Amino acid sequence: MSTSQSIDPITSAYAYPLLVKQLLRSSLASCPDQQIVYRDLVRYTYSQFDERISRLANALDRLGVAMGDTVAVMDWDSHRYLEMYFAVPMMGAVMMTVNVRLSPDQVAYTIQHSGASVVIVHRDFLPVLNKIRDRLDTVKQFILLQDSPEPSLPDSFSLEYEALLEASGTSFEFPDFDENSRATTFYTTGTTGLPKGVFFSHRQLVLHTLSVAMAFTSAAQQGRIHRDDVYMPMTPMFHVHAWGVPYVATLLGMKQVYPGRYSPEIFIDLIEREGVTFSHGVPTLLDMVLGHPRARATNFSRWKVIIGGAALPKALAEAALSRGIDVFAGYGMSETCPFLTLSQVKSASLGAGPQELELRTRTGLPIPLVELRVVDEGMQEVAHDGIAMGEVVVRAPWLTQGYLHEPSASEELWSGGYLHTKDIGVLYPDGYLRIKDRLKDVIKSGGEWVSSLMIEDLICRHPSVREAAVVGVKDSLWGERPLALVVLQEGLSADESLIKSHLLSYVENGTLSKMGIPDRVLFVDSIERTSVGKINKKLLRQKYDG
Question: Which segments constitute the AMP-dependent synthetase/ligase domain (predicted)?
Answer without folding.
Answer: 28-404
